[in-house]
Write a structure and sequence with these properties.
3-stranded mixed sheet
């Protein structure tokens, strides 16, 4: 994420004195809210096509134009009547975007479309969570440095784009309403947001949650080594609970196998690269030497120097065998390197298919 994750705060009233502070009447916090715009229209209706496991899926719903227009025109600032700590106001602020009451019909329609896919494909809870995650991850990433505040989830869907907090709010809202234990990960130091889901393993740092990156299609439970802008997530996130449902992600045994295969294949390809380069140079030198030797033998035969020719033939044949053995060994090493590279590239580009990736990863590690 490139834009700064900060709410626009307005401290509307706080009386200070030598003794007690007098707080003015009214609610202590005024949160961002949607006021539907009646008569608004929405054309054309969006459709989202995304990869999942072995194929593609398409989501089409009819979001309420009045709610979308109200979200677009909403005051996204957080108004405080008294001072709050960051640990207090940041969760209030972001949950206001995820849980705005006017969004419930939008969530219901979107989840109905996702459940249709779940039922058709016979997805269990883990694969259904992955379906929802890949759907959100596939929404094109776009950030605008001039915009500070996040979008309401209906905007992210209709606009067909969003940055890390936009997409994280949408994913967390969907998972919470499907009964998963879910939270937002707010990385203030790195200006980033992601999602955490309650899981039986692959816990992120000191939490009981598996990490889900929302800015690209990636595996549940495998945090990025670095963000797209090169930033490394070094800080501990502020965990903002969104849903406390009983559903857990239980695919971490397979995720850990995929992660081991990713690491192992990358390390093996990296280790083989300099050896392959050195062997290429050696084989090229041997080939040139062998070709020169062959040219000399042809000259001896042409000039009738058969005694010298016959004396050198065994040495030529020995060098030819050594060259062929070196080429064979090189080809075996090259095949091993290609297998590692192919496996790594496949796993990276098929994060939408955890079951298939697991089978490939397990076969590679077993071989």
């Amino acid at each position: 994420m490139e834009r700064k994750l900060l709410a626009t705060l307005i401290l509307v009233a706080m009386a200070l004195g030598a003794g007690c502070a007098d707080i003015l009447p009214g609610p202590p916090v005024a949160l961002p809210a949607i006021v539907p715009v009646e008569g608004a229209s929405l054309d054309p209706l969006p459709a989202h096509t995304f990869p999942f496991e072995g194929g593609e899926e398409t989501i089409r719903i009819d979001p309420d134009p009045a709610v979308y227009a109200g979200a677009k025109g909403a005051d996204r600032r957080l108004h405080l009547a008294r001072d709050l700590s960051r640990e207090e106001w940041i969760p209030l602020y972001y949950r206001a975007f995820e849980s705005e009451p006017h969004l419930e019909p939008f969530y219901a329609d979107l989840l109905a479309a996702l459940r249709d896919i779940r039922d058709r494909e016979g997805l269990d809870d883990d694969r259904y969570l992955e379906l929802i995650a890949v759907f959100v991850q596939s929404i094109p990433y776009r950030t605008d440095a001039s915009i500070v505040e996040p979008k309401f989830p209906i905007e992210t869907y209709v606009d067909g784009e969003g940055d890390c907090d936009d997409r994280s709010l949408l994913l967390a809202g969907l998972l919470a309403r499907e009964g998963y234990g879910v939270a937002l990960f707010y990385f203030e130091d790195e200006a980033h947001m992601a999602v955490g889901v309650q899981s039986t393993g692959c816990h992120y740092r000191n939490t009981s949650l598996a990490y889900i990156e929302t800015t690209n299609v990636s595996y549940v439970g495998i945090p990025p080594l670095a963000l797209s802008n090169g930033v490394v997530l070094a800080s501990d996130p502020l965990v903002i609970p969104v849903g406390d449902g009983p559903r857990l992600y239980t695919g971490c045994d397979q995720i850990e196998t995929i992660e081991r295969a990713l690491s192992s294949s990358l390390a093996r390809a990296g280790a083989l690269a300099p050896e392959l380069a050195a062997r290429t140079r050696d084989i090229e030198a041997e080939r040139e030497s062998l070709e020169a030797f062959g040219t000399r033998l042809k000259a001896l035969s042409r000039d009738g120097e058969f005694l010298e020719y016959n004396r050198l033939v065994p040495e030529y044949n020995r060098k030819a065998r050594e060259y062929n053995d070196a080429v064979q060994a090189y080809n075996a090493l090259l095949a091993e390197s290609r297998a590692a590279v192919d496996l790594h590239n496949h796993l990276v580009t098929h994060a939408c298919d955890r079951p298939g990736s697991y089978l490939r990863a397990r076969a590679y590690l077993a071989g």
